[in-house]
Amino acid sequence: MDLEELKQSWKTASENLPQHAFNKTYIKKLITSKSSSSIRKLVNWDFFSLIIVILLIPAMVWLNGAIENQFPHLGLPALITGRIFYVFMYVLLSLITVWYIVKLRFLMRLDTSKNLMYNQICIAKYSLMNKIEKIATIIITVILTALGVSIYAILKAPLLLWIFFTCIIFTGILVSIYMYKMVYSKHIASIQENLQELKELENDEA
């Protein structure tokens, strides 16, 4: 619901409720509440993602040991490919951890009680970070898929493992699509829209 629709609904409802409930201060509080809700959802999602990434680091250490125990006599190509994969994953997970901490700091700076221009700049930077993250996710997915296929081919993995690997890749793609479309894009757009509505209200008061 945009600002004009909100105003119209409040104007209609004001016939049955006290007029003071529909002044601009009340409208601002409602819009601010919507922004705060979207900010909380983004914070919760980024914090949850950060925890998952941190937990993946010891999981990779365990997986490395498990594979070496399962295949104790790996050839040189498999060893080299495996080392490249694990070094890549450790570096990647470390960078992603830092990335989410930075993103959370940007979100924490958003304060609906502060200057509108300040909030608009913060959410614009956060939006740009998510666009960069989306591109990086595509590139990383291609690299991980290529490395995974190479390792499985060298190890001559059974069909069941190939099916498992394929399911993991497709699940990751579906989760990423949901994350960027239904979480990030949706709530970032909502916050930007609400800030614009607040700016219009301020201009009306001027």
Description:
Helices cover 87% and strands 0% of the residues. It has 5 helices and no strands. It has helices at residues 3-13, 24-70, 76-109, 116-155, 159-205. With 206 residues, the chain is mainly α. It has one domain (33-205). The model has no long low-confidence stretch (mean pLDDT 81).
Mean pLDDT: 81
Cα-atom radius of gyration: 24 Å
Structural domain tally: 1
Given the C-alpha coordinates, what overall shape results? Answer: elongated
Fraction of residues in helix: over 70%
Number of DSSP-assigned strands = 0
Q: Name the structural class.
A: mainly alpha
What is the number of helices?
5
The unreliable regions are none
From the N-terminal CA to the C-terminal CA, the straight-line distance is: 24 Å
Sheet having the most strands: none
